Amino acid sequence: MRGQFAGWPEQAMDVLWQLQGEPTHATRERYRADRERLVRQPMIALLNDVADTDPRYEDFSVWHYRTDSWWWQHQGAVIRLGRKIEIGLRFDLDGLRIQGAWWYPDPGQVDTFRKAVASERSGRELSAIVEDVRKKGYDISGDVMKRPPRGYPTEDHSRTNLLRHRSLIAARPLGCEEWLHTPEAVDRVLSAAADLDALLMWLVRHVKRTT
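User: That's the sequence. What structure does it adopt?
Assistant: Structure tokens below.
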């Protein structure tokens, strides 16, 4: 049932501002409780509301804090859709960012990805999906080789760029407007998740767990 997420309080930005740079241990501890209440707990509420809309989104994690100051300045979360395939969210002073990613692949996953890209039917499908996602404003990136892998089509192949990928990420900022402080953020995330759905489901189908 939706309705847990009310938006990030405006004070959340004040807390993140205090944690910029290289905050001392004392500073981190001073703001730990406020950061948990104002920054991390709203992310949990957001993910619970998102999960209520689709059972595929129920496997999620919202990160805790680590030694590196970056983790105090950015609140991350992931929704796992397949082995090493996920939706990632990040809330920080720049607002909310989303990405759909297949990354840090298991042994063998890169080869299954390349075989699916080289296959005419699945490869054409992925190429069209990536182009559609790009037109919607997402940056396409990943771990990309300088040359096509051995045993695959040469550089004049229409999907050479995809064959060079050892991971695939589509990301864009969702913004830092007033809606961040309201329940509307749930709808913004769901709309972006819909943008990424075809890409992520292609990866779920074709990049299998191999270990």
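Residues 25-53 form the longest helix (29 residues).
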